[in-house]
TrEMBL record:
The keyword Hydrolase applies. Keywords: Hydrolase. This is SpoIIE family protein phosphatase. Residues 200-414 form the PPM-type phosphatase domain. It comes from [Mycobacterium] burgundiense. Residues 32-179 form the GAF domain. The lineage of its organism: Bacteria, Bacillati, Actinomycetota, Actinomycetes, Mycobacteriales.
């Protein structure tokens, strides 16, 4: 935004303490750092300065994000060229820097911000540190035309405003970082794509919990080669980083164990041994199925560690609930798991799911296995993608907007 230097500056409408309180109130309602920075700039320009911008460095990339009316979406520049300049001193040491005159580049280093600032020259510029929780993470830059410069008391007021703004901005930054970490961890719990397996068709569906900041513990995986494959689905108790860490351990343990022996009972036994921690109360439910296509059929060896068994939707519409049992992993040091064997014929589908499906809670109570079994026959002979989509849609309609747990589905259909 270019400001006409001929316009008189409006007098401050609030004292520094009043403005600091308003800044804390307004910015505290935003969890988006860029939006919060723009709100701060607007409040400053209404009450304390002719022009303002916020500078927030990215510690990972070394770049700096400049936010203000001149470029509402922000401008990213490198910090390397600022060494020894006033803005760099504020970002490095905290405190403030005060410069006067026509050369404002020491505190306003990039276009279009510099052009907007130069339109006010000669001017006074003050850069004050944004410091929260003992760390300086940014700077607030304020400009006034030279005939209405900053007094020592006004610089002190700007610092108090910056201190209150810093807490809100830092909270927004932390929330954004936490959201990003959650998204990355959540994505790591699922393979990006399902493999193409001759004689089989696979599909999966994953819908995170309604509280999308919580990292859930649902996962699935498919691994193997040639005509010998292992599919697994599981759920770690709890949420958050601890659950995500255990989920990662579980997936890696399954992959390592299956590299040597794809017998599902053996995979679960090894995984349980690795995950067991007497100092922890966390546990994992898992379902492992070994798939060996053979002509028009698939031999399936199935074992469970406390996870609900899959449903088998036959091509003629019959739905079978398999009887297989086993203790959840990580509860006791040693467990012997048993496996059952059955076959999928052409058009048959094995549907594996987590408790976000059968334990989904709507206005009529729990969704339940009975409802799932009743809706599946209509999709006999359908592709695994259609089966997964139909189940997900039915569960979401049953929930009718209420909060839900993570939902994971993995369907295996016999036939290319």
């Amino acid at each position: 935004m270019t400001i006409d230097p001929e316009l008189d500056r409006a007098p401050p409408t609030q004292t520094g303490d009043q403005l600091a309180h308003e800044v804390a109130t307004v910015l505290g309602g935003s969890l988006n750092p860029r939006r919060a920075a723009l709100q701060l700039v607007n409040l400053i320009q209404l009450n304390m300065a002719d022009w303002a911008m916020v500078v927030i460095p990215d510690r990972q990339t070394g770049a700096m994000m400049l936010v203000g009316d001149a470029a509402p979406t922000g401008v990213r520049i490198g910090r390397a060229g600022l060494t020894g300049r006033p803005l760099d001193r504020v970002l490095s040491a905290g405190g403030y820097e005060h410069i006067e005159g026509s050369d404002l580049s020491g505190l306003v280093p990039a276009e279009p911000f510099l052009q907007a600032a130069v339109a006010l020259a000669p001017a006074e510029a003050v850069g004050v540190a944004l410091t929260a929780r003992g760390v300086t993470f940014g700077a607030l830059v304020l400009l006034r035309q030279a005939d209405a410069g900053f007094t020592a008391a006004e610089i002190g007021a700007a610092q108090r405003v910056a201190d209150r703004a810093a807490l809100a901005l830092d909270s927004a930054r932390m929330y954004q970082q936490q959201t990003h970490v959650a998204a990355v961890l959540q994505q790591s719990l699922r393979p990006p794509t399902l493999p193409s397996i001759p004689g089989l068709r696979l599909a999966a569906c994953y819908r995170p919990a309604a509280e999308n900041l919580d990292i859930g513990g649902d996962f699935y995986d498919v691994l193997g080669g040639d005509d010998d494959w292992l599919v697994a689905i599981g759920d770690v108790c709890g949420k958050g980083v601890e659950a995500a860490a255990l989920t990662g351990q579980a997936r890696q343990s399954i992959r390592t164990a299956a590299h040597f022996d794809r017998d599902p009972a053996a995979v679960l036994r090894v995984t349980n041994s690795v995950l067991y921690n007497p100092a922890s109360t966390q546990f994992v439910t898992m379902l492992c199925a070994r798939l060996r296509p053979d002509g028009t059929e698939v031999r399936v060896d199935l074992a469970t560690a406390g996870h609900p068994p899959p449903l088998v939707l036959r091509a003629d519409g019959r739905v079978e609930q398999l009887a297989v049992y086993g203790t959840a992993a990580a509860l006791v040091a040693e467990v012997q798991y048993g496996a059952i064997t059955f076959r999928l014929s052409r058009g048959d589908t094995m549907l594996m799911f987590t408790d976000g499906v059968d334990e989904a809670w709507g206005s009529e109570g729990q969704y339940g296995l009975e409802r799932l079994q009743k809706m599946l026959p209509a999709y006999a002979g359908a592709s695994p993608e259609v089966v997964c989509e139909a189940v997900e849609q039915d569960v979401m309609e049953y929930l009718d907007g209420t909060a839900h747990d993570d939902i994971a589905l993995l369907a295996v259909t016999c036939g290319s």
